[in-house]
Amino acid sequence: MTIVVAALAAATVVGTLFVAANWQRDIEVLMGMPPTATVAYLRTSMVSTAIFVLVLVTGRALRQAGRAVSQLFHERLSLPVPAARLIAPLVVALAGALVVDYTIVVGSSDAARRVFSAQDDGTAPGVTRPREPERSGSPASISPWHALGLQGRSFVAGGLRAPDLATLNGAPAREPIRIYAGLQSAPDTAARVRLILDELDRTGTWGRQILVVAATTGTGWVNPVATQSIELLYNGDGAIVAMQYSFLPSWLSFPVDRSAASIAGQPWSREFIDGGLNCPRTDAPVWVLYGEGLGSLSAETAFDDLGDLRRSVDGALFVGPPNSNPLWRNIKDRRDPGTPEVLPTYASGLVVRFAADTEDLLIPAATSPHAITEP
What we know:
By secondary structure, the protein is of the alpha/beta class. The chain contains twelve helices and seven strands. The protein has a seven-stranded parallel sheet, sandwiched between helices. α2 packs across α3 (about 80-120). The chain is elongated. The relative contact order is 0.07.
């Protein structure tokens, strides 16, 4: 019987690998990606085998521990055998959870913070301090270069300058404004918000055509394609502001330190918008909120609901929002009847539109200017 079970298990594993490989090839064809090498599938099978052995050994070890604890309760505490067998697994499970939580999770989180904190202090190759006064970290800025963090330095140093934009657009361009506050720029979120508002006053942002409030990902990264697109569209006559709330990558920040995005997002977007609206200015720019991945979660948490978001900003773009985003889930759950969950329609697309490709981005004639797009 054991041989039959082992043979069936091996056949199931091999069959699953073949099915998964075919799915992967289909995805590669659809995405225009190069095919995966055969060695990658062999590596996958080896990793799967290692995980199986680890789970098997762990399961058997927990079973042995449960039996040992049950025997201990029966012999030392004189518990009846049924009661000892009932309590022992609960004690082992609790002890295992404590070990995983306080030893593995906390220990790995601390180690990750030490590693990525050191990385955040670095500067990407080719990135140099900007000289333009319109950028944080420049000699004229009150947001020091050394405090911006790895991604902040790349953000303020990147993008096209006014001469490049003028050449591409065939018209005189303004120098784009890029404002950033890193974790070390100020002692807390409120102080970083005030620093950014002071930077916006210093650079004359309130007279520009558009102001983009960009919620960063876990490391403080802002998509350079998205930012440069805005600067090209407005020929430099705009400002993009961002603030770092973590230095952990999103894939690690999401399970380990996801609360940092929510905690930072509420005062960041709320205080920033309220403070900015109270600043004196003659020609108010268009206010747009942007968030990608974990950044979309940080951006959403500042608003109670869709109505609050529409009243606060002129538009918002959330790219790849996680399913845990409350606003995303609420809109998806209240989608128009009969529309799919993958690419739903909400209120006939008048306020919120979902997009998966360029065709979905075509603006209906009746669409409100206060539209939110959720790819």
